[in-house]
Amino acid sequence: MSHTAYRISSNFLAVATLAFLLLSGCQHRAEKHHEAEHKVVVTSPVVKDVVITQQYVCQIHSCRHIDVCALEDGYLEAIPVKEGQSVHQGETMFTILPTLYQAKLQAEEAEVELAQIEFDNTQRLLQRNVVSKPEVALAKAKLEKAKAKLALAQAELNFTTIKAPFDGIIDRQHHQQGSLIAEGDMLTTLSDNSVMWVYFNMPESSYLAYQANKEKGDLTVELVLANGTKFSHVGKIGAIEANFNNETGNIAFRADFPNPDGLLRHGQTGTVLLSRVVKDALVIPQRATFEILAKKYAYVVGDAASATNHEAEHDAHGVTHEATLRGQTPGNLHLNPVALRNESHDSHNADHAQTVEEPHTAPEEHSEQLGEHHGAAHQREIVIQNELDDIYIIADGLNVNDRIVLEGVRQVRDGDKLEYEFLDPQKALTNLKFHAE
Fold first, then answer.
1. For 356-374, what is each residue's pLDDT tens digit?
2. Prediction pTM value
3. pLDDT digits (tens, 9 = 90+) for 176-220
4. Tell me: domain 53-61+191-278, CATH 2.40.30.170, correct?
5. Which helix (H) or strand (E) holds 134?
6. By CB neighbour count within 10 A (0-12 exposed, 13-18 middle, 19+ buried), where does 135 fall?
7. Topology of the domain comprising 85-177
């Protein structure tokens, strides 16, 4: 009976051992596969000049854009210009039938002559003491009134000829030749496109940044047209509106652009680009960072001060977290039963750990080839100065000699010991966009 039990126990033990070995082999292959999928790549910040460009949707206006209206009633006798034509200052654009106004002018001229004769006659009678001085003054007043009416008639006649007040381009004509028009009717519009006023709205934070940097004189103002092409002439900030819009929190800016070729027209739209150069900016790829509670962080590898604190904390608890290319973290560590069994027989091996210190090398001396290194990763808060498409400009928290985790940030936890590959910083920035959002 005991012999049978012993055989069953031996068979069970053999089956259990075989199953355990198969399970361990599968786990080992899974870890190898996981190791191939997740790589920890480290790089360093780069110091370089970066162009910060801000984009604003804009409306393009002529520096002078007016409505041309009729000042008198009458028939539209002639239109010597065409729609879209360029005209010069003083050139005739419309003529209203002047016949009635010419007749009125002639009548007023006759009234002036009559008043002049009466005034002269009254003066002669005064010299003979036939009339009094008040009568002479009355005759003089009648003469002045007649002259005023004559001037008004002359002005009304002049108003029948509508001339260009400045050089510009005529817009669509709202009335055709022969139309009966009334005083105040709009005939067309006239645009002076020699200089274009480009209006755009800027939020308060950007306005404050503009005011802080405007004395440097390094701001470049450019215009991108609706088809995506850049206007060939550079502009300048011409004016800033007096008040902020309380509903939007924006303030209106005006940029002035020369338009010698006449390409820009009143009413166009586009995008204003405000660019300035940040000298010696400390730059890192955005993908090397992560966010916690609206704060930005990066994993710095090989920070000696932080490494000492974290290792002391881990030793106090008797646990060492180790992140390798497998991407293991304390939350997904796998315990090997064989290792645990061996630990009970040979406890002095449990505290044995190998630490490889990474020699300090300036970023410009790093090899461009990927190489294997070891070090501890420590979370560090960073302050962003500017955010571009693919990179951050760092204001505080990092320096050019730091090594930061670039690839595999999601697989790393604070204090993990990494086996990583170093990527040359210039290669890390290859194909990244250096344009502001």
1. 333 333 444 444 444 567 7
2. 0.65
3. 999 999 999 999 999 999 999 999 999 999 999 899 888 887 899
4. yes
5. helix 133-158
6. middle
7. Helix Hairpins (1.10.287)
